[in-house]
Every structure is written in C-alpha cells, then in structure tokens.
Amino acid sequence: MKLSWIIAAVILAAAGVLAAIQFSQPKALALQTSFEFPTPQAIAPFTLTDQHGNRFSNDDLTGHWSLFFIGYTSCPDVCPTTMGKLTAAYPLLSENTDLQVIFLSVDPDRDSTDTLLNYANFFNPEFVAVTGEHKQLYPLTRSLGFVYAMVGDGDNYQVDHSASFALVSPQGEKVAIIKPKSDTPGKLPQIKNSALIHDVTALIDKYDNG
Q1: Residues 6-30: what's their mean pLDDT?
Q2: Of 40, 116, 123, 127, which is least packed with CB atoms within 10 Å of its CB?
Q3: Please, what is the end-to-end C-alpha distance for the chain in angstroms?
Q4: pTM of the model
C-alpha cells in the first residue's frame, strides 16, 4: 500500500514539473505573414551611404527597431508599390515604438545620393535610403535573407530582388522575415498591410516586453 502511494506521489511530482516547464516556455506568436527566427541572427558588418551622404553602418541599427526592404529606384512595379504600402503603414508601425524604415538600394551605379534623396522624399522623408558598393551589399543582403541579381545588358538593365522585409532589433540582430503570401491559388503573393502591421507589432511587443 505504501509503495503505491510513493509511486503516485512521484507521478504527480513529475507531472507538476512538466506543467511548470511548459508554462514557463514562451508561446509561439500567431504570425500572419512572417517567420520568426528561434534566436536573433547576427548581421554582417557593413558600411553604406545614406541619402544625405552620411555614413550608415551597423551602429545605426542599435537603439531602435529597423525594417529593411531591398530594391532600386528604377524598379517599375514592386518597389514603388511596396514603398507606397510602407508609407501607408508607417504611422501605425511607428506609433508606439522607435522604428526606422530602410530602403536598401542594390543598384549603386544608377542610385546616386540625390536620386535616393528624391525617391525617399517622394514617399516619406523619414525613411532611410542607403546604398554602397556590391562588395558591401552582397554580404549584407545575404545576412538579411535577401537575394538580388542584375538582368540584361546596357543602361536599361533591371534588378531581380527579394520582395520580403527583414525586421532588425535594437541590438542590431535580425529577428524575423516578413514574406509575401498568397491566400488564393494562382494569385501573386503579396504582403498585406494589415498582416505587416499585426506581425511587426506583435514581434516588437514580444521582444520589448518579454
């Protein structure tokens, strides 16, 4: 009889420990269009130039949240559409946190400082627009989870590039990728502003208040 009570007590104690462990583990976020990395990811060292001609490096990522998007100012479709969406979403994205939107141009031959300044000002003067030599851009885009490639010859070449966003923490580390998604088969994937705002807000709240 005593043995059965001892066994029962051991089982109950083990169950209590397991429940405590499960309760202490943070719940996974219900993200709508994003992938959160299990642990924050380091970003490759870089030195670029912003639209005002100032140096922009890893140091400029610390102390506030950053949302990266890559493209080029001559882009005929994805880039202006995305910048327009970001302009519309920015008031809510930055409402309760210090968030900088960074347009990373991967077309340094055509995107001069003045070109980037005019492009950023057209959408939102608060946005940061940066570029640099390809030897800086390649490792940076890879560590952010982006890819790009020049397509075509001559002055009218285009640039194929990722259409995702990368969310970077105030510690300068990548915490999530916001990816285009299609809810309807055959429909072009896109990032809906409602999903973008939901996910970025949830991620920031988790890291700032977790």
Answers
A1: 46
A2: 40
A3: 47
A4: 0.84
